[in-house]
Amino acid sequence: MALRPCAVAVLLSGAPMALAGCADETELLGVIDTPDATAGAVTAPFVLGADITWAQEDEANGATYVDDDRMAKDLLQLIAGHGFNYVRLRTFVDPTQPAPAPDGGTFAPYSSQGFGDLAHTVAYAKAVKAAGLGFLLDFHYSDYWADPGKQIKPAAWVADDLPALAADLQAYTTNAITALVAAGARPDLVQPGNDITPGIELTPGTPLGPSSSWPALGQLLKAAVAGVHAVDPTIGIMLHIDRCADATASAAWIESAIAQGVSFDVFGESCFVAYQGSSDAWAATFTALATQFPALKLAIAQYAGDPSDGAVIRRANDMIFGLPNHQGFGTFFWEPTHSGAWGSGLFTSSGTVYATVPGSIDQFDAMRAAYGR
User: Fold this and answer.
1) What is 38-370's CATH number?
2) For a tag on the chain, would you pick the N or C end, based on fewer CB atoms within 10 A?
3) According to the model, what pLDDT value does residue 204 have?
4) Are strands 266-271 and 134-139 parallel, antiparallel or unpaired?
5) pLDDT digits (tens, 9 = 90+) for 133-155
6) Integer Cα distance of 64 and 245 in angstroms
7) Per-state percent for the chain, helix, strand, coil, to nearest 5
8) Angle CA 359–365–366, to nearest 5
9) Residues 333 and 49: beta-carbon distance below 8 Å
10) If you average pLDDT over residues 77-105, what whole number do you get?
11) Residue 156 has what DSSP assignment?
């Protein structure tokens, strides 16, 4: 059944009131797969978030963090003091496992010490929630990095066919959310899969392209959402791809997810100058998506500074904050204590001492004031 605009609004917002304007409400039966309430995750003030997953390992190795006043501070306290109100943590099935590379060979384990596994994620998420910050959980659904070039089945699921894979993925998701909730670290938002433009759980050697087999991907994403909502149906869901500069591909991906009956509240894009190009193209994409999907919250799921353009941080946030009808959910700065090929962070490092860069991190103080938070 083709989804009309009113049906799309109901699916994405979970709001029965959106049925007003549909010619025949019975046309929507069997399509709506979103809980009636997704609580504070999708109605919170504008999110200034950061993925700081590496910090847990850095701190285990002696890292300290120095603020603009040259005083050492707890990292969560430090970023909250500059206006951040959300933390994103990524988690892996078994990060101690090597992973088969799609083009042959083997990737060394993500972490031989297990950083990024469920136990480490629960421990760090407890600190995040205790600091009064929102929490986005990023499931990679792999033992290794999941990104546009690789979505590798974890070793524990490598022999699964599609039905078994969906069952294992759902059970793993439910177990993780159950453990977090029991520990007092309930996620406010969950991201099932990371940079899943090509799909998830692809075996090595699977050709990657702009989309995978959508019936299969839809089944896996619905299993993931069901795994979250079996524990708490009010937890919000964000889907995340990497087509920040391609409005057409992004819209087609969203439409495919909707057609498969995948329920979600927020759509996030990776927006790195190094990989997705100029922020002018990002603006065109988000403007187009806001127009086409007026009931969908939009976010930058990953971004960083640009060494050649100090204004890109503020420009990216103003772009999302300025979307019509408060559609801009917020942004998540990727690993602000580090810099790399993806872009520049908000800190410099000398040994195990990480010090803020005032001209960069202070932009978040200004945004907190400008956005009325």
Assistant:
1) 3.20.20.80
2) N
3) 82
4) unpaired
5) 999 999 999 999 999 999 999 99
6) 36
7) 40, 20, 40
8) 85
9) yes
10) 96
11) G
pLDDT above 60 (res 281): yes
Question: What's the CA gap between 180 and 173, in Å, rounded?
Answer: 11
Which pLDDT tens digit goes with each residue over 13-50?
A: 333 223 223 333 222 222 223 333 344 566 668 999 99
Helices in 277-334 by DSSP H: which ranges?
279-292, 312-321
Distance in angstroms (rounded) separating the CA atoms of residues 229 and 233? 4
Whether pLDDT at 356 is above 90 = yes
Question: How many Cα atoms are found within 13 Å in the side-chain-facing hemisphere of 177?
Answer: 29
Which range (18-32, 90-104, 250-264) has the least confidence? 18-32
CATH 3.20.20.80 domain position(s) in the chain:
38-370
How many other CB atoms sit within 10 Å of the CB of residue 125? 23
pTM for the predicted model, two decimal places: 0.89
Torsion over CA: 256, 261, 267, 273 (sign): negative
How many other CB atoms sit within 10 Å of the CB of residue 275? Answer: 17
